[in-house]
């Protein structure tokens, strides 16, 4: 065979081999990759499988309103789902000194983890730090400590986000009506959470050229809500929308609205009570929406405490450790999606 012909033969052989490899790749590698991806997508976490026994100390303020009552009930219910979890529940209290002594007892008893919704985050910071130094992970719920090192994990609602969600919903409903009268019924004005909610509301309204025309503050109680709403309605003869920060105080707000015979506006609630969600579903009152402030935070904290002690992570994350902070979303509940949120709503 001549040299030119030999070279041509080698080139053709090489091309054939390359083509064979390419075809093989198209016919065998792709299904293998797809199968691998499918297996990864369908992978099931073993996080719920029974593991090391975990004793969790739980302390929260007194259940003096529906949201706080639901916090405790949901934590207890969540712990009951796991045979490897023992929840040691301290007496609910608004006494800071008593709550501090409860955490001291948990430390002395060498519990595996502590889930703590402090009556006062700053006041409980020191004892929470003591627990952390003793090797007991603390999961801080809702009211933050003054030092982030006092907790391994912090589970929060989104107060600023509540205001944003409420304001955006009102903007969407009023459809560019820049002369609309929008009122706000806040909670306790001295609390940072109330200030955050109001700021988020103001910021969201500004995006559609609206502002708060009338504002009053209540105290998260039925009586306070009724009194504040009565004063508001007297001062504002015409309104287009109201945002009430809290569905517990909203019971009083609705009483004032009915007493005044006012129905020219729509109202957005806050926190997400079952009573308000049922009213939204029935669509026969001025309440057309509410913004969730999850009362499931302590239940989430119980789950996270269990994962921490058992050395597991959150299965839907690539990260192999439980995150340091979990902030829950503040969705708007309307007639269109209310059935999705009713199962986790709290009783006012």
What key phrases describe this protein's structure?
disordered N terminus, Rossmann fold, six-stranded parallel beta sheet, single chain, 348 residues, six-stranded mixed beta sheet, alpha/beta
Describe the structure.
- The chain has 348 residues and is α/β, with parallel strands linked by helices.
- It has two domains: 54-157 and 296-312, Response regulator (Rossmann fold, 3-Layer(aba) Sandwich), CATH 3.40.50; 159-293 and 335-344, Response regulator (Rossmann fold, 3-Layer(aba) Sandwich), CATH 3.40.50.
- The protein has helices at residues 3-41, 66-79, 96-108, 125-133, 159-174, 192-206, 222-235, 247-260, 274-282, 297-309, 338-341, and strands at residues 54-59, 85-89, 113-116, 138-141, 153-156, 182-186, 212-217, 241-244, 266-271, 287-292, 325-327, 332-333.
- The strands form two sheets. The protein has a six-stranded parallel beta sheet with strand order 2-1-3-4-5-11, sandwiched between helices. A six-stranded mixed beta sheet has the order 7-6-8-9-10-12, with helices on both faces.
- Helix 2 (66-79) runs parallel beside helix 10.
- The chain is elongated, with a radius of gyration of 28 Å.
- Residues 1-29 form the signal peptide.
- This is Substrate-binding domain-containing protein.
